[in-house]
């Protein structure tokens, strides 16, 4: 099984989430308050230290006021065409 953490697709996901947070005018702390979690969790997600699943992506997107589909499109564009599972 190929690793996805630190892959170009995973980096695209992190970048998309950071961009969405900044576009929403939120700090990591403010986003964490919306998610009812610690700021350190947001930092670990954005830095790529923690992977998220599709349900978490939806929750994050909602908290950011972002379109989860658009975030996924950015990940798709950033993922190598020959990336294995």
UniProtKB/TrEMBL annotation:
SUPFAM superfamilies in alphabetical order: lambda repressor-like DNA-binding domains
Region forming the signal peptide: none
CDD domains reported for this sequence: HTH_XRE (cd00093)
Boundaries of every HTH cro/C1-type domain copy: 17-71
Molecular-function GO term, any one: DNA binding
InterPro entries: Cro/C1-type_HTH, Lambda_DNA-bd_dom_sf
PROSITE patterns listed in its UniProt record: HTH_CROC1
Protein's UniProt name: XRE family transcriptional regulator
Organism annotation: Paracoccus methylarcula
């Amino acid at each position: 099984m190929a690793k996805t953490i630190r892959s170009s697709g995973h980096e695209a996901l992190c970048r998309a989430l950071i961009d969405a947070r900044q576009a929403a005018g939120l700090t990591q702390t403010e986003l964490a308050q919306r998610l009812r979690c610690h700021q350190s969790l947001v930092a670990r997600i954005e830095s790529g230290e923690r992977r998220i699943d599709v349900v978490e992506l939806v929750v994050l997107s909602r908290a950011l006021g972002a379109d989860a589909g658009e975030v996924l499109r950015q990940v798709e564009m950033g993922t190598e065409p020959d990336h294995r599972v």
